[in-house]
């Protein structure tokens, strides 16, 4: 008898892409661009997450000498974060590596 070996489906790999930026419009543009490309390539996604905005505040005195009326400056820095979790096969790995990202966005890619 001639038995043929069944081909097992290729092993899927998981990738976690974290986008971090101080510019909300830029990060939303890149995030939606990645989502549209994922739908076009029919890549399985396990999670598309918007992390709550982190607001860093600094309060400092205006007067360097410390005399006079107490006047204060308040500064804020908002940090926006988005996470995309993907499952893909080998052919899609090159696509993920070639995603066009503008300056001002920090990208962290982890293979799980």
From TrEMBL:
GO cellular component terms given for this protein: ribonucleoprotein complex; ribosome
SMART domains xrefs: Ribosomal_S10
MF GO annotations: structural constituent of ribosome
Keywords tagged on the record: Nucleomorph, Ribonucleoprotein, Ribosomal protein
Gene3D superfamilies: Ribosomal protein S10 domain (3.30.70.600)
Domain Small ribosomal subunit protein uS10: 16-110
Protein known as: 40S ribosomal protein S20
